[in-house]
Amino acid sequence: MGKGAGITCPHCDSRALLRRTKAISTLTREKTYRCNNDNCGHVFVSIEEIQRTVVQPRTLREGVNLPMSKMVLSRIAQCGQ
Ligand SMILES: [Zn+2]
């Protein structure tokens, strides 16, 4: 796991490190974190869901229909398309 993969512990505000990732679906991951604070020791699970596309990929997977980011849409509109 990368060193940067962390989240703030909701109980003590210390850094919690990613321990495990489990794919729920193509767009959803379940992530297990453990708080780095030894006096806390909180282990918890978060759900990460991919929300939208910012830059279109060059390889599109059938069945994956993500909305475009609003920021990108307004940029396209400005180009008169
Ligand atoms: Zn904690």
Descriptive overview:
It is a single chain. The chain has 81 residues and is mainly beta. It folds into 2 domains: 1-50, N-terminal domain of TfIIb, CATH 2.20.25; 52-81, no CATH class. The chain has one helix at residues 70-78; strands spanning 6-8, 15-23, 28-35, 43-49. The protein has a 4-stranded antiparallel sheet, with no helix packed on it. A hairpin with a 7-residue loop joins strand 3 and strand 4 (43-49). The termini are far apart. The structure holds zinc ion. Zinc ion (ZN) binds next to loops.
Which keywords apply here?
81 residues, N-terminal domain of TfIIb, 4-stranded antiparallel beta sheet, 1 helix, 4 strands, elongated, binds zinc ion
Question: How are the SSEs placed, and which strands pair?
Answer:
Blueprint: E1 6-8, E2 15-23, E3 28-35, E4 43-49, H1 70-78
Bound molecules: zinc ion.
